[in-house]
Amino acid sequence: MTDPSHAGSLLTVDLSAIVANWRLIAQGVAPAKVAAVVKADAYGLGAAQVAPALAAAGCETFIVATLDEGIALRQVLPAPVILVLNGPLPGTEGEFVAHSLVPVLNSLSQITGWATSTKAGSGAPAAALHIDTGMNRLGFDEAELDRLAARPEVLAWVRPILTLSHLACADSRDHPMNAEQRARFVHLAGRLPAMPLSLAASGGCFLGRTYHFDLVRPGAALYGINPTPGRPNPMAQVIRLQGKILQVRDVDSPRTVGYGASYHVAGPSRIATVALGYADGWFRSLGNQGHGVLGGVKVPLVGRVSMDLACFDVGAVPPAVACPGALVDLIGPEQSVDDVAAEAGTIGYEILTALGRRHHRRWITGAGETAA
Amino acid sequence: MTDPSHAGSLLTVDLSAIVANWRLIAQGVAPAKVAAVVKADAYGLGAAQVAPALAAAGCETFIVATLDEGIALRQVLPAPVILVLNGPLPGTEGEFVAHSLVPVLNSLSQITGWATSTKAGSGAPAAALHIDTGMNRLGFDEAELDRLAARPEVLAWVRPILTLSHLACADSRDHPMNAEQRARFVHLAGRLPAMPLSLAASGGCFLGRTYHFDLVRPGAALYGINPTPGRPNPMAQVIRLQGKILQVRDVDSPRTVGYGASYHVAGPSRIATVALGYADGWFRSLGNQGHGVLGGVKVPLVGRVSMDLACFDVGAVPPAVACPGALVDLIGPEQSVDDVAAEAGTIGYEILTALGRRHHRRWITGAGETAA
Asked: Are B218 and B205 a contacting pair, CB within 8 Å?
């Protein structure tokens, strides 16, 4: 996407806001350190831009999900620690070593694969260990830890630098599972050699000091998603998404709009067709549910979202403002990622990771300085 | 995505099936011609691979949504006609001419912009005209056609080669709007100079001969989506999506799985964690709704879909089959794109366009020959 004049939609990512969010968490959890989760291309916002900005601000540990994400990130971050959450798929251990990536070892199968593929002893490459404390998704459960304890030579072959676990319900401050998982984490980590511990992702950063341990791992909160649902969002908003009007239609008689004729325009109004659709990650579930903001006025999304287009009723906006080429705010100062997610029936995380490739993207730093 | 061993999920696109689907439609609509809609990166399946395969099969007209899609497609298709549905955004007319792209002119604003930016007369670059017959999304409505008719010099400045419109309800064979839109199309097209006409997209190809006119424009049907919902799918399946198992957990006591502890495992079973999630376009709405197929056995998706992971209950599959590294079929012979869409609460189109960038992609032609 080379030229903003070609694009039907514009996505602006405020790197300064991401850095400010990282610093806010760092102040809140000190002396614990703060890693940055930049998996899934920094939640769709561009790991190649986001990670260097955070490294410049002092972040020393970055977290991705997959080997290929780690390899790509190593190209732009020569020095920092890069953890790979999914760990090695069989046969890929050598690639982790070649790119100085720290695998998170989640199972006996991964740890034995790692131990037998890499050099033992003090020169062994670093790894992290993942204890499952209640997600039942990835990580050693108690039975696996027992089996690992029975084979101390396996653990001797790896050089673990971090033990981590993951909370299932950290976005519900009062959920009893938080304290249960914390207690289980302390209990199970005690069976391993002493090393730094990490339990909290975005939500966990806001559950209080006892959840911070040595390292916290925010992702969503860095990108402006509220880590404390139901309470005011402490994070700065990070992105602005704007869609360009292609055409405005005067409607003076009753008619329907879009596929399936699902929306009925009753009276005189104007319908603006905007050049973005579900192929851009503007979810189809926003049909007849979502809205935009144009000239300070809330404009409802009418009809179904098409693959490349969405229609908005702009009858309340002056025609000089609602004209071809004008930009409708879809995510921004007046409508957060979380707001759009609520209208789409999902969570802000999915709104971010679904952001499409056709948006013209620009990254801004400081007071409007741009780095396209 | 360079190496399949690195990837948590594999996406296979059968170019032969796409060509077979195009030929099936061509036989059904002859003597009408068949354009191929390859917008949104050929519905997520790779326009740079799909379009040349169809051109080799005889397709002479390709359709994209945006200028940048047209420019990219021109790199791989030097000769064919390329139509750009959204038409020119203000100031981009020269780019259309430079890349020999045919804009679809949707409004008076676009047609006057085009006429004043390009050379008039018989040497003028070709354009298409879009008449709105009931979508109320893009295209000239009757009032705009009247205004256009009052300014014959504008139309004289463009060289229209096609008039098109779009059906709102073509996937409902018996919807009265189909015949209404067809009649309106004939009526309104009669106000323009005689030229080839096009009304049918995928659904319209199957509404009968009177809907075919001179050119049909299938997209979804080429990619295996059923153009006749409620009746057997006449199209060949095109894609296979497989997720790799990272870890299998024996569960012998009651517990919950994943974020929000939304799934309760009651009895002894095994849970497989697969390396794909909603950041890969495996919709979060599939949580506790979707399923995969492993070793011929249907395996339910349990718990919420995470950003990079999804869990399946593989208790009914032998442990030797449900093991780390094994591939769970998510879309394929036993579960179509439309099936997954139904479980996710959307349509197959959105499942395709959401397919993520982390899948290892390969395109096959003929009997297993691969073109990675």
From this structure: yes
